Amino acid sequence: MENRNDSILKDLPQEIIGERVLLRPYRAGDGKALLEAIEESREKLQPWRPYEHSQVPPNEAETEAYVCHELEKWAQREYLSMSIWEKETGQYLGGVGLYGIRWEARSFQMGYWLRAALEGRGYMTEAARLLCDFAFHTLQATRVEIRCDTRNVRSAGIPRRLGFAYEETLQSSSLTPQGEPIGDLVFSMTLDRSSASANSALNQD
Fold first, then answer.
1. What pTM does this model have?
2. Once rounded to an integer, what is the mean pLDDT over residues 65-74?
3. In sequence order, what are the residues at sequence separation of 6 or more whose Cβ sits closer than 8 angstroms to the Cβ of residue 142?
4. C-alpha to C-alpha distance for 99 and 108, rounded to whole angstroms
5. Residue 9 pLDDT grade (very low, low, confident, very high; cuts 50, 70, 90)
6. What φ, ψ does residue 172 adopt, rounded to 5°?
7. Quick one: pLDDT band at residue 51, thresholds 50, 70, 90?
8. What is the CB neighbour count within 10 angstroms for residue 201?
């Protein structure tokens, strides 16, 4: 049975390259690009992210501190957070990551966000697919779970497009940034379902 101490020894890739996007762990100096994306997306992010209601908006020092914190969690294999970049332009697009990690069960939860100006172009679907493949093929995941606010239709579209199974709606399982109870939709991809999807794709080629 694998534990987190064993997982620290895993040799993880420093880049995952897709057709249009590149995923990589955050690096020192990424705080400026992160801040620009947050500022551009503030109105769209407001219903979902608690810091959007802070009276003091994030500044570059705070986003750079966040980047350093993500680097530390990556090194400890506590949270595998990756930044998303457009291959052609090098523009920062958003973030995607694996959290709620249970190494002994090889079970992960996936979270993601995309800068507002680039929504609806398929970038996040591609990034989430890349990370899901990474989880199953490199980390030997048995389960990847996505949870999202019941109100967040756009976010819920990602697992549906990737072939995740809808499992349940957890009533009043989370709080909005305003402190109001809200439900979560739960989707999952399991090892057998992932293998079946891969075989189906091969048969269609």
1. 0.84
2. 93
3. 105, 106, 107, 190, 191
4. 6
5. low
6. 50, 40
7. very low
8. 10
**What is the pLDDT confidence band of residue 199, given thresholds at 50, 70 and 90?**
very low
Q: Hey, what domains does the chain have and what are their CATH numbers?
A: 4-204 (3.40.630.30)
Contacts of 179 (CB under 8 A, 6+ apart): none
d(CA 126, CA 44): 21
**Cβ proximity of 166 and 185 under 8 Å:** yes
Q: What integer best gives the mean pLDDT of the chain? A: 85
Rounded Cα gap, residues 155 and 53, in angstroms? 20
For residues 35 and 180, the model is more confident at 35
**Nearest in space to 14 (alpha carbons), one of 107, 83, 76, 73:** 83
DSSP codes of every residue in 77-120? TS-EEEEEEETTT--EEEEEEEEEEETTTTEEEEEEEE-GGGTT
Calpha distance 20→28 (Å, rounded):
23
Using one digit for the tens of pLDDT, what is the confidence trace for 113-132?
999 889 999 999 999 999 99
Angle at 95 between CA 192 and CA 79, to 5 degrees: 65
Do the Cβ atoms of 52 and 176 come closer than 8 Å?
Answer: no
Distance between CA atoms of 8 and 3, rounded to whole angstroms? 9
Q: What's the mean pLDDT in 129-145?
A: 95
Closest by CA position to 14, among listed 149, 103, 108, 138? 138
